[in-house]
Amino acid sequence: MTAFTHHLVTGAAGFIGSHLIDHLQDLGIRVTGVDSLKLGRAANLATAGQKNSFRLIQADLNDIHAWNDEVSRLHREQPISLVWHMAANSDIQAGVRDARVDLQDTFMTTFHVLDWMRRENVREIAFASSSAIYGPLEGFIGESAGPCQPASNYGAMKLASEGAICAATHAFLDRATLYRFPNVIGPRSTHGVIHDLVKKMRSGQNPLQVLGDGTQEKPYLHVTELVDAMLHIQRHGTQRINCVNISPADTATVRFIAEAVRDAVDPSAGIQFGSTPQGWVGDVTKYAFDTQLLTRLGWQATFSSQDAVRRAVREIAAEIQTA
């Protein structure tokens, strides 16, 4: 990844995609982004848009006529060497209500991106996968853990996307990197426990209603550290298929998060937890990643899960001032 390289980022205006683009531009990389702006926000690209090295194509990846020709034209101007496929349905509850949401916005977007790469001879992809592919496995989950039994349509379509990408490495890709994300938090988020709880409190909800009994316990990673880890893995992964868990070494509970949000937004407010550990259909209540492979590649998180939560609560509370 050097200066004058050209990358394609799908889901460019999303939470993670927009942070990734900022970092790629800092490295001197030209970026073409594609985003439908259905969940992503143009405001997230305010910094990127100030530079001539960035171009946004507003299009749904499933509408191939809306983006294929334009991206191919830009590819002919300067060959795209790497596709960062960040686009997916990020609203897990929407996928619970209608499985077609994850089929279309998570799996079929992957299919169409791979199809474009095959036709244009673009031979490397980096994919935003998820801890959701594993399902309710216990203990520290390593990359070879299994069998993977996703508990949500979101996780199922991420796993199916991984399969399609792996198959493509046997057909036309030279290299694929599968990043299995933990719970990622920080500014520009559009969903997630911190975002949702802050939004509830800003709307005046008191006591704060929390899904689940607060014992849910998972790793939380700040988005800036996630992007740093992704770039590090991209530089140092040596396999044709690099599949890597990204995570801090510890976890935080939903009770801790709810109390941190309460303390930051309205210390006098009450908190009311649910009666069961599972907050919603498909909620994996507890998991922790085995990150030995990530450590061997030379990367460790700077923030603990609790430190990342405290920082993200401050940032998100500052962004969401009113309902």
Structure commentary:
By secondary structure, this protein is an alpha/beta fold. It has helices spanning 15-26, 64-77, 92-97, 99-120, 153-169, 193-202, 223-236, 254-265, 292-296, 305-319; strands at residues 6-10, 30-35, 54-58, 80-85, 124-130, 140-141, 175-181, 183-185, 208-210, 217-218, 220-222, 241-245, 252-253, 271-273, 288-289. Strand 1, helix 1 and strand 2 form a beta-alpha-beta unit. It is globular and about 60 Å long. The termini are far apart. The mean pLDDT is 94.
Q: Which residues form runs of ≥5 with pLDDT under 50?
A: none
Number of helices: 10
What global shape is seen?
A: globular
Radius of gyration: 19 Å
**How many extended strands?**
15
Mean pLDDT: 94
In the sheet with the most strands, the strands line up as 3-2-1-4-5-7-12
Q: What gap, in angstroms, lies between the N and C termini?
A: 41 Å
Measured by DSSP, the beta-strand proportion falls in: 15-25%
Largest sheet: 7 strands, parallel
DSSP helix fraction: 25-40%
Note the run of SSEs as H and E.
Answer: EHEEHEHHEEHEEHEEEHEEHEEHH
Structural class: alpha/beta
